[in-house]
Amino acid sequence: MYELIQTVLSSDEKTILRQLISKLSASGKRYFLRNEILQAFADYCHQFQKPAYFFHSSSLGTLIHYTHEIILEGNDIWLLVRPRIGSQEVWRLLSADTSNFELQTPQALLDVCDRFVDRYQSPILEINFHPFDRGIPSIDDPRNIGQGLAFLNRYLCSQVLHDRAYWLNVLYDTLHRLEYNHKQLLIGDRIKSGIQLYKEIKQAIKIIGERPPEEPYENFHEQLQALGLEPGWGNTASRVRETLELFDRLIETPEPAILEAFVARIPAVFRVVLVSIHGWIGQDDSVGRPETLGQVVYVLEQARSLEHQIREDIKLAGLDSLDIQPQVIILTRLIPNCEGTQCNLRLEKIEGTENAWILRVPFREFNPKVTQNWISKYEIWPYLETFAVDAEKELLTQLGERPDLIIGNYSDGNLVAFLLSRSLNVTQCNVAHSLEKPKHLFSNLYWQELEQQYHFSAQFTADLISMNAADFIITSSYQEIVGTPDTLGQYESYKIFSMPQLYHVVDGINLFSPKFNLVPPGADENIFFPYNQIERRDESLRKKVNELLFSSSDSQIFGHLDDPNKRPICAIAHITPVKNLSGLVECFGKSQALQKQCNLILVTNKLHLSEATNSEEATELERIHSFINQYNLQGQIRWVGMRLPKPELGEIYRVIADRQGIFVHFARFEAFGRPILEAMSSGLPTFATEFGGAAELIDDGECKFHINPTDLEGTTKKILQFLDQCNTHPEHWHEISERVIQRVRNKYNWQMHTKQLLLLAKIYRFWDFLNKENREALLRYVDTLYHLVFKPRAEKILEEHMQR
């Protein structure tokens, strides 16, 4: 980047840069984001008839495309430049002399940001996690970000090659710690060292090799125990031998695939706690609130899958005879005023499981008017520490022992997961789902103005604490971590930022850390299955949904279809501005070509303006109704505005597919997009926003299914091109339908998710054992942030609650 800035820019390009800066300055603004910078440069190129290559490929064009922010301060111009994914540089130049660029520190930029909002303070607390990365292996290639497991496997195998004797003892120490209810697993006390373990395994392989492959473990367990090998190696002779041989091969020829295969078989995870605090977690019709529905569905489906997979692992490990049972608990908040749901029950069994439960713990009643009711995710912070203390007692009572893995969900759940794992010394997994900071533009700079409504000072601090303290982090998409070449990722937004007059984050997260892993969820295959699996479909449900979408009358259904046989365009989402259903209605309303071929089907949670619970919902509902009237869509739109059971939602996708329809997800931003997964799983060709992780769900291919919801004309063009292909070649729709079904089946399913999650828990437990000194120093730093920064912010929120 230095060479590009200092030496490659021609004198003409430097002149153009001065003119561009002058044009930006003339607007009266001082802070510019990437889209504004690009637009100003595009306008300049158009005005002076510069060729296309100059905009895209010249040295100046390259610099402009890499620049994500520009701040004008007096005669200084500050640039935040992102020359590659995951890397940010700060450059300063004088407006009078654009030939003199100087590389600056992040601290200097953060001071500029504070002065921009007139809240400069010196000295100020600096948060910097970079020193804790020293001595820790780090990913080099940005393309491998999110592949932490593969990276660690390669690293650990290289270490085994370097010193086999040392690693034999490390493996021995790790495996010797495994037990269940004080019953030793894998290695007994007769084996005293790694070398002895290696010799006994060699001997065991010979003994097992003489037995029939399917002979049950019970028939020969005494011979293995005589060697010092306890239960857990497998349930049959062939399974035991394979596991023993994997260990042997791991020492002789250490390879990542061998390490992964061996660790996957280790019986080390039996008790799992999923922490999801604010989400109104229940089953049936009480699933979640609009702002948390996706998270609640995720956690419930993950719990079912975990319980099933752990049970299967116990069986394959040969531990049935020890009466070992998987225990999976969703830890959430008990809500006394539960509005007719079961969210006031302490314990509720999760449907479809044998031993998975929802455990609800109440908040302590600092203020009964607040703690008896559901609390917004923005108001929850003062209650989390006492909740964690109370929850720890409840968990130990329910489980009988400490858990093997704690998984946090969203900012509040992740903070509680940190407190519990710190107290119990348990492996911690972090799942953000959606980080609030990148959703709200300049929310860190203007945190004081937003504090009363959002309490971002507590939330952003909690995020920094939990994401750095976590043993490993799972994300649904690569973009969630580091975005794209053009956009910052959600986690990347925590790399460098200022909370004026509170603290500066100089280095908030190591994006190249091996703790990041892509582990996308699946869809419930019992509900969201392909439309062409006729034998699985309920004919009465199919008829009911057809009437709901195309003919029946109800106060919660708007519109009639003049021609119900047109190809349907379907969208399913809650009424929120970010889901942008109003934008889709406007897009449809502006296109006579789309209206000629299609009907628009909307399925939402609300329909009438009187149902809105906040100003954002009211504005979005008003916009949808306004566009329907403006474009006279009453005969071409069908809007179902009610909460529907999951089986009906699943059948809606299939009914739309019966008519060779399409699904459109028009969100302004989507971290992942559960409805996209459900639609594709059902066989619907799907168009989805290019902003966020949703773009990774869809293989754009030649048909261009990624859409820009701000470009209505471009979106319309893409949909019409697809429709033309379907009209010209009737098999085209079926080809795309089968392609999306296979994509979900092969890449996005709960069985793959759960196997990978359990493997990560085992690998990172092993890694933490090796890295315990560095990790303890990091955790003490995190503890300091918690007690000296987070707690005072949370206590201030409580004071405000008590005064209301």
UniProtKB/TrEMBL annotation:
GO biological process: sucrose metabolic process
Alphabetically ordered keywords of this record: Glycosyltransferase, Transferase
Signal peptide: none
Keyword Transferase: yes
Enzyme Commission number(s) from the entry: 2.4.1.13
Name of the protein: Sucrose synthase
UniProt-listed PANTHER family: PTHR45839, SUCROSE SYNTHASE 1
InterPro entries with a match to the protein in the record: Glyco_trans_1, Sucrose_synth_GT-B1, Sucrose_synthase_pln/cyn, SUS_EPBD, SUS_N
Catalytic activity: an NDP-alpha-D-glucose + D-fructose = a ribonucleoside 5'-diphosphate + sucrose + H(+)
Family: Belongs to the glycosyltransferase 1 family.
Superkingdom of this protein's organism: Bacteria
Native species: Fischerella muscicola CCMEE 5323
Keyword check for Cell membrane: no
GO molecular function: sucrose synthase activity
Entries under Gene3D superfamilies matching the protein: 1.20.120.1230, 3.10.450.330, Glycogen Phosphorylase B
Residue ranges constituting the Sucrose synthase EPBD domain according to the UniProt record: 147-235
Residues in Sucrose synthase N-terminal domain copies: 3-104
Domain annotation Glycosyl transferase family: ranges: 558-729
Residue span(s) of domain Sucrose synthase first GT-B: 258-550
Entry-linked Pfam families: Glycos_transf_1, GT-B_Sucrose_synth, SUS_EPBD, SUS_N
